[in-house]
Amino acid sequence: MDSLITAAGRALATGDPLGGLKRVALRNDAPALALRGIAMAQLGDLVRAKALLRSAARAFGPKETLARARCVVAEAEIALVSRDLKWPVRALEAARATLEAHGDTVNAALARLLEVRRLLLIGRLAESEATLAQLDPAFLPPASRAAYELVVAAIAIRRLRTKTARAALARAHDAARDAGIPALRAEVANALIILNAPAARLIARGEERLLLLEEVEAMLASNEFVVDAYRHVVRHGRAAVALARRPVLFALVCALSEAWPADAPRDLLVARAFKTRHADDSHRARLRVEMGRLRTALRTMAAVRATKRGFALIPHRACEVRVLARLAEEKHAAVLAFLADGESWSSSALALVLGSSQRTVQRALDSLAAAGKVQSFGRGRTRRWHTPPVPGLTTALLLPVPLPTD
Fold first, then answer.
1. Which residues, 6+ apart, have CB-to-CB distance to 100 below 8 Å?
2. Does pLDDT of 9 surpass 90?
3. How far is the C-alpha of 76 from the C-alpha of 108, rounded, in Å?
4. What is the SS3 assignment for 303?
5. Is the model's pTM score more than 0.85?
6. Angle 103-54-78 (CA atoms, 0-180°, nearest 5)?
7. Which of 27, 67, 122, 345 could be disulfide-bonded to 32 (CB atoms 3.0-4.6 Å)?
8. How far apart are CA 302 and CA 56, in angstroms?
């Protein structure tokens, strides 16, 4: 390893892509190509970075399997940042096995972290926890340890374990400070902002207020009657009724809970459940049928009684009735939630994480674009979507060559 390669690697490790490029910009040997790819990735040119890393992998000789494996892992992180979720996962697994076989435990750990982050993005929370449990962070350098703690915090947030998330982010903050990489410190700071931001709206007794994640966790752990509009679940103590596949019933229980302790008028219930402004006799007849089904679904938790002007919800045990509502009543809130991470997404990647068809996602994106809520660039398969004007944060990418120690 020559002095220029070593100096470029050190510059990239400390988050100085321009310093790294200055040393290898005019070279086309395999190590220089790999470092140029990492530098371009840190500068945000992910397309050029991917091409350089592939060229580097081809340029390394057949006996340089370790170097090629590092290039594959670096390319996998670029794919993750660019939300190319269809990138071949088996290639990353093979690269991780090669790194482990050659004793490169640090880069092997980073490859496993990439697997966990991908699983989190596509909603496989249990698998991501099981994969992360196989990793021992004790031997990781500061930058890798910060990345590990960010993943721990992300899982804890999704599990509504705020104390665990805050502890992980505190450790990530210390590790990022020790690493001295500005982009990594910014990523930790952004995670703290998200954790401290309002997470939901509380609707109770006709009033609304914003809730932090800790308050949401406490509410769901209480014995209160809670209608969870995020998961479409009705909870009362340890009992829970899932209504995700019964949208009419969920709309009715939301309307009844928002009106509690008063009753909800029939016209309001018809409008919420059947999406119509003008109720006729057929709508009222259907409302009675659906109310009967709701009584059956909630029979262990509450009663639904008819009143002169509508229906009222009456929990079996004395408690407060609360509705945990989304921050904004947006038709395409799930699409916006993924785009809010600041990265650029393809419609196919969004369809994968949402479990929907690509055409359905495309229609949602077109609707949001017409409303000025999202923007796109590129055409055809290269078209990407993002929310304006939030800039993306460049994550710390892997170095394809090891750094010498003093």
1. 108
2. no
3. 13
4. strand
5. no
6. 75
7. 27
8. 65
